[in-house]
């Protein structure tokens, strides 16, 4: 097994759309894209000027929309594929680190682990950013995606036994984390988004891959229907009992921890390696960048802010908290899923 992948130079997506790889298929996706784009509903963007609504989900008009269309049209899943599915700012970076460390724990020592020198996003590529490159990757492939479950092609959800690990988080913390993150990436020529504006947009569902609640419910329902295929996690539970969750993760991914590993403290080593304190203080995560496309280059340090449960509430007014809690209760009613207050 060889799951460690070098940092994906994901300007592949731009190479893809510039037609250097598989030009016929790219042309087809590009034609479809150009045809639909002008007619899509538009909303205010957080990082880009606009978001567009496609098949019920809000996406950046270039990167995310093209990525989704490409995946729907041409991605070839394998039954051994493992996808980490997340809504942005719910714990993607942490889940990537934990999964990578769990699956590859016999390959790397903790003293010279790839996660000490590579941002977690560089260890585990983003499906929508470089779908073409993935054909050459050895199985089992560890990939991440922000695509809502309901928009994934049947080839990924029905026809194949691909596994998904999903992590969700209290919407108040997601909103605030996203607002702060997106403003950092927002081009200087666009005025920053105020918290009030971000709050309104988030509540209306207008944020990358939103509405948030629909995203969560899609994976929640899939996890109830096919628990062997979809593992549903909460950021808050991971914070509270990381070792318990890592053991569940190992079990689900077909890499259960043996009694010997448990007694030797391997689970705790993984938790420590992937902790906020450890990762956020590494030189690579303080000073290097992640290149998602030729236009999207993100400082690794932006992926690590506070890593706390409940921090969102310290930014929001009582009224905002009340409203978002009401929306959450209403949306999740009858689903069996709950978040804290
Ligand atoms: P905050 O902004 O609330 O601090 P994503 O990885 O999906 O972009 O989510 C980012 C959020 O996860 C940020 O939340 C970030 O600080 C937090 N985070 C990143 N790495 C983490 C880790 N190892 N442990 C816990 N939280 C982490």
From TrEMBL:
<comment type="similarity">
    <text>Belongs to the sulfotransferase 1 family.</text>
</comment>
<dbReference type="InterPro" id="IPR027417">
    <property type="entry name" value="P-loop_NTPase"/>
</dbReference>
<feature type="domain" description="Sulfotransferase">
    <location>
        <begin position="80"/>
        <end position="335"/>
    </location>
</feature>
<keyword id="KW-0808">Transferase</keyword>
<dbReference type="GO" id="GO:0008146">
    <property type="term" value="F:sulfotransferase activity"/>
</dbReference>
<dbReference type="InterPro" id="IPR000863">
    <property type="entry name" value="Sulfotransferase_dom"/>
</dbReference>
<protein>
    <recommendedName>
        <fullName>Sulfotransferase</fullName>
        <ecNumber>2.8.2.-</ecNumber>
    </recommendedName>
</protein>
<dbReference type="Pfam" id="PF00685">
    <property type="entry name" value="Sulfotransfer_1"/>
</dbReference>
